[in-house]
Structures are given as C-alpha cells and as structure tokens.
Amino acid sequence: MILASLMLLASASLPAGLSASCATGSALTQSSRVLGGYNAADVDDAQVQAAAAFAAESVGGELGEVTSAQVQSAAGANYKISFTTSDGRAYAAVVRRDLRGVWSVTSIEETGDHHTDIAQEQADRDEDNDD
Q: In angstroms, rounded to a whole number, what is the distance separating the alpha carbons of residues 105 and 107?
C-alpha cells in the first residue's frame, strides 16, 4: 500500500511519457542512471525532438538533427540537447518543460561542431574545475 502510494506520488512529478514504475525501477537498479541527475535520452524521443525544435526556433532556425540528448526530471523536465539547425549551425542548449507543459530555453550557445557531445563537455568542465 505504501509503495503504491509512493509510486502514485512520484508519477505526478514525472515528465509526460514516463511512468513511476519505469522511473523508480530503472533509476535505482541501473548504475548508468543517476537519480536526480541528467541521464541519456533517445534523440528520437518525441519530447526531445520538441525541446530541440523549441530551442532551434529561439535562435530563428528550424531543427535539422538532434545529435545528443540528456534528460533530468525536476518538477517537470530539463533537456540538455546538442542539435543542428536546417542551415547547418550547431548548438548546445538546456531546455525546460515545466509541469504545465510550458517550454523555456535556460541556456543556448552555438558550438560550431554538429558532433558536440554534452557528456564530454561536462566531463571537460569538471576536470577544469578540479585543477
């Protein structure tokens, strides 16, 4: 009974398309997932594509291709996305979708390299901060 109540409570704060059993089970049993942190996301996922399209529009472009994505569940969802626009410009962005479904761009920068890997960028920043 308590577990069912916790799962119901957890599902109320998850991004659209995620179930409580999926989120609680996979986050606690897979060492590659970080509870509360960013986790790899499928670049073809509908929410990832929507986040990237929103970011592309924010810089006056049209989405070309999503090259990498990570998602974090946090009173909605945060998406770290690398993508290209249809004219070939490459970007790294953080896009937020709140619990009401409203999108906003938290940060965005032109990277100049459409193969930018967000995880590698974060590892490089962490290494620089340790020095």
A: 6
